[in-house]
Specification:
The complex is a heterodimer of chains A (279) and B (599).
Chain A: H1 2-10, H2 13-33, H3 67-102, H4 107-121, H5 124-134, H6 141-165, H7 169-176, H8 181-189, H9 194-217, H10 228-235, H11 245-272, H12 274-277
Helix pairs in contact in A: 1-11, 2-3, 2-11, 3-4, 3-6, 3-9, 3-11, 5-6, 6-9, 7-8, 9-10, 9-11, 10-11
Chain B: H1 2-20, E1 33-38, H2 53-62, E2 67-69, E3 78-80, E4 88-89, E5 95-99, H3 122-131, H4 152-157, E6 169-173, E7 176-180, H5 188-191, H6 202-208, E8 222-227, E9 231-236, H7 254-257, E10 275-280, H8 284-292, E11 298-300, H9 306-309, E12 310-312, E13 317-318, H10 320-323, E14 326-332, E15 336-341, H11 354-370, H12 373-381, E16 386-387, H13 412-421, E17 432-437, H14 440-455, E18 463-468, H15 471-479, E19 485-490, H16 498-501, H17 521-530, H18 537-552, E20 556-561, E21 563-569, E22 572-573, E23 590-591, H19 593-597
Parallel strand pairs in B: 1-10, 17-18, 17-19
Antiparallel strand pairs in B: 2-3, 4-5, 5-7, 6-7, 8-9, 9-10, 11-21, 12-13, 14-21, 15-19, 15-20, 16-20, 22-23
Helix pairs in contact in B: 11-13, 17-18
Classes of the chains: A mainly alpha (279), B alpha+beta (599).
């Protein structure tokens, strides 16, 4: 199946270009994490609002920090937030969805559905901002806010899929030989939802990066560090004065990464579509 | 559908006309409307809660105070407002007698019997000051008179019963107030110009309760007609007393004020406007856009625009194309910006072990030396802020222009040496949190501060941000002593240097105004020795000595006074002000001659 998926992905030029863009950004993030790039994001290495030069490729900001260094470090921030939120919310959503689907119509299912309903009823950005505000001061406030709100969609998708899969013959067989329920779920049911999880995870990743930028712009995001959202917030005071470095650098990086991820997610969805793979 | 379209076509011009044309005062002359932009909004319009400059701007226009400052005279000079004259003060300085004008009325309001505003009497002033000592009011101005007016604190302790008399705050008759002080308080009259001291009718407080915050009932030159989070609209109080404007008495200076058209105010009785609108626009870019689009008539120019409007920095001069359309003034603020060390924090402040105490002092002094005021001024204040050593700002006569400025000179080598000599290195230096409320400029200030310190060898990861959602949260945190490095600013309440030196007086420690929790016995002794003194060479010498002590102890990285740039539409004859109780100037704003003469 994986080979088939890869073949399909390779033949989709948009999907492939998305993959290349995401890979380049991931490579940059990896270089930042390993200390090869962007380590001078906080240093004041120039004077205020310097233009493009050999020393400062994207110019400098108000206090003389190099905008390129900050953009590169912002890439790592985006991936750090994206990966953390995606992994945690996908895991949480998967477990909750699996339990809800496996034990559907039970009290456990009712409670999980009720919880999802409550969380979904609150406007997303308002809720994220409220959680981030309540946990202010914690460097993980923003992550928690997103994880708490993002798991519900994953859980809903997995629940439906689990309900569908548990009617299948091989699950009946597993039950017949006396395999415990939860073992059946984690060993035989969830692996069959992998294609859905992969697509959903890519969507969550995009949403997490997007939300980080918005929350940081509003001052509820990154505490110590730099992100594209903070750079865009800085640019709000600079653009009218005719300085576009922060705006162009952060805006372009954000646009490229989100576009790349969206193309990749669409291509993955097509490539993993079981109706097209199973002949 | 066609009918609806026709209706819309007919209604739109009507609605547009309705929005831009408020009620005219006469049948023929257009209404005079002035729209002022501010960078923040008031939380409450109750004088007892008028703690911010934004609240004061509105409160002093809706209510009356006993005294005010002269419109044009600088340095600031006191002037009777609702008081009939300057106060009579006993020889020992402990008894102050103030006579009120007669025949001044509150505005008409349902709070009064038959809805007609009654005359203001001396007991209204007494009641208004007492409110600050009534816990129910949740007032914020009591600190102005705490421990200073005889019996007032005891009145509060005994339950704040308004029917009980306070020995130090009495209405001798309907038009005479007598204040007895516990010790001489030369700044008393200044406190009576504050929005906090505005006179409120008891009937309105009893009728509206907490809603007085949005339903003011005063006797000032304007009356509130509407208020929301982005705007207040006030109209002229038609019954406001007639007080012809006297150029000479208000401090008119031909060289400065004639170009602004103020000479035409002679003999006219304020307020001159029919309608006064104050727009609250937090974001600098949005405020500038509103001004550029002609939606407001005045702006305090955001620093990000300094580059685009100035043709010269020293002294600031407006570009010719802008000077054709707008009046301009550069004004140094009375307050200042500083970064206090929390002396109650053993990591950086006082320490019970004398050796560590000395090392902490050396650490603070090294950080003072590492701070680059020139760079900070250039970054955030367009190089036109005024950097000064200590707490005596250039706005007060006690400021020593010829004094030693080594405290504000960057000395990286000296900083490194001081750290090394006192055993501070990357391992031993403490982790310190730098507090600030959420905001782009505040974060940039932090990042620049951290860079200054890393230049002197302080590890970047040991200076961390401590971010608060609002300024109120931040203020509560540092007032509770929870912030080691406190970046903040002080706006003077009244034009007297006492308001500056009290910031480091030991007994004023947190939650008081001394957020540094500085407590030097010698400084305290000098403050107490000067407390009854008026401005004089003797007091100046004491204040300068206190300033020196503060610098020797390195209790604060200080300071800079910002240069504020004001621009306003040439259609208006006015001198804007933001210091102290700047809102007073609005009663004197008028349309310029050219507009008055226009058809």
């Amino acid at each position: 199946m994986m080979r088939e998926t890869w073949q399909r992905l390779k033949s989709d030029p948009y999907g492939l270009s998305g993959l290349i863009v995401v890979s380049v950004f991931f490579l940059i993030a990896s270089c930042v994490w390993s200390g090869l790039l962007g380590q001078g994001w906080y240093e004041v290495s120039g004077t205020r609002w310097e233009g493009i030069s050999a020393e400062h490729w994207f110019g400098t900001n108000l206090i003389g920090q190099d905008i390129l260094q900050r953009t590169l470090f912002g890439t790592a921030t985006a991936f750090e937030v994206g990966l953390t939120v995606t992994i945690c919310s996908t895991l949480l959503g998967t477990v909750m969805g699996a339990l809800s689907g496996w034990y559907n119509h039970s009290w456990l299912d009712e409670i999980i559905l009720w919880l999802k309903g409550v969380l979904d009823a609150i406007p997303f950005y308002l809720f994220a901002a409220a959680v981030a505000f309540a946990l202010q001061g914690s460097p993980w406030a923003m992550h928690v806010a997103m994880i708490v709100t993002f798991w519900t969609t994953t859980a809903r998708i997995i629940r439906g899929e689990v309900i569908r899969i548990k009617q299948r013959g091989f699950i009946e067989a597993a039950r017949a030989i006396g395999l415990p329920g939860l073992k059946t779920v984690f060993r035989h049911v969830l692996p069959n939802t992998f294609h859905l999880l992969l697509v959903q995870a890519s969507i969550v990743f995009v949403a997490a990066i997007n939300t980080e930028v918005i929350l940081s712009f509003l001052g509820l995001g990154i505490q110590d560090g730099v992100s594209w959202g903070l750079m865009l917030a800085e640019s709000s005071q600079e653009v009218l004065a005719g300085h576009f470095g922060n705006f162009l650098a952060a805006g372009t990086a954000l646009f490229l990464l989100l576009m790349g991820f969206n193309l990749l997610a669409d291509a993955l969805q097509d490539a993993l579509d079981s109706r097209r793979i199973v002949r | 559908m066609l009918k609806i379209k026709i209706l819309l076509i007919l209604l739109v011009p009507l609605m547009a006309g309705g929005c831009g044309q408020p009620p005219a005062t006469g049948d023929v002359s257009p209404a005079k409307i002035y729209r002022h932009a501010m960078d923040g909004a008031p939380g409450s319009l109750d004088p007892a809660q008028a703690a911010s400059i934004y609240a004061n701007f509105v409160v002093v226009n809706i209510y009356d105070t006993l005294y005010r400052y002269k419109y044009l005279a600088r340095p600031y000079q006191l002037q009777p407002n609702l008081a009939a004259a300057m106060p009579e003060i006993s020889e020992d300085g402990l008894e102050v007698t103030i006579r009120l004008r007669q025949g001044v009325h509150f505005i008409n309001d349902p709070a009064f019997e038959d809805g007609t505003g009654r005359e203001i009497k001396a007991h209204d002033f007494v009641y208004s000051i007492k409110r600050h000592f009534d816990p129910v009011t949740r007032a914020q101005g009591a600190w102005l008179w705490q421990q200073r007016i005889e019996g007032l604190d005891r009145w509060k302790a005994e339950g704040s019963d308004y029917d009980l008399e306070v020995s130090g705050l009495r209405a001798l008759d309907d038009y005479t107030v007598q204040i007895r002080l516990t010790r001489p308080f030369p700044q008393l009259i200044h406190t009576l110009t504050q929005g906090f001291a505005a006179i409120v009718p008891r009937e309105a407080v009893e009728k509206y309760g907490q809603m007085l915050a949005s339903h003011p009932v005063g006797s000032g030159p304007f009356m509130l007609t509407s208020r929301d989070s982005v705007r207040v609209v006030m109209v002229r109080n038609p019954h406001y007393r007639k007080e012809p404007f006297d150029l000479a008495d208000e401090g008119f200076d031909h060289a400065i004020h004639e170009a602004w058209g103020l000479q035409k105010l002679q003999g006219k009785s304020p307020p001159f406007l029919d309608q006064l609108e104050i727009e609250f626009i937090n974001e600098g870019a949005a405020r500038w856009n509103a001004f550029s689009a002609g939606e407001v008539d005045f702006i305090k120019v955001p620093v990000s625009q300094f580059d685009s409007i100035l043709s010269r920095r020293e002294p600031p001069q407006l570009k010719p194309e802008l000077a054709e359309r707008f009046h301009f003034e550069a004004s140094s603020e009375s307050g200042f910006i500083y970064t206090n060390f929390n002396m109650a924090d053993e990591r950086i402040g006082y320490h019970p072990d004398p050796g560590q105490d000395r090392r902490n002092q050396a650490l603070r002094c090294a950080m003072v030396k590492a701070f680059d005021w020139t760079r900070s001024n250039e970054t955030f204040f367009y190089k036109i802020g005024r950097v000064f050593p200590g707490v005596l700002t250039p706005a007060v006569p006690e400021y020593d222009a010829a004094g030693d400025t080594s405290y504000i000179q960057r000395d990286l080598e000296g900083a490194r040496q001081l750290l090394a000599e006192n055993g501070w290195n990357e391992e031993t230096l403490p982790v310190l949190e730098y507090g600030f409320p959420n905001g782009v400029t505040e974060r940039q200030s932090f990042e620049q501060f951290r860079n200054f310190m890393t230049d002197a060898g302080y590890p970047a990861d040991k200076i961390r941000p401590l971010i608060f959602a609002t300024y109120g949260d931040y203020q509560r945190a540092y007032s509770a002593g929870k912030v080691p490095l406190i970046n903040s600013s002080w706006t003077m309440d009244y034009p007297d240097a006492e308001n500056l030196v009290q910031l480091y007086y030991g007994p004023n420690a947190s939650p008081g105004t001394n957020s540094a929790n500085y407590n030097n016995p010698e400084y305290n002794r000098l403050y107490e020795a000067s407390i009854a003194m008026h401005e004089s060479p003797e007091r100046t010498a004491i204040y300068r000595q206190m300033n020196q002590l503060l610098m020797e102890d390195c209790a604060s990285i200080t300071g800079i006074s910002r240069t504020l740039l004001f621009m306003w539409n040439k259609d208006f004859a006015m001198k804007p002000d933001r210091s102290f109780l700047g809102g007073y100037f609005m009663r004197f704003v008028d349309l310029a001659e050219s507009l008055n003469d226009a058809p």
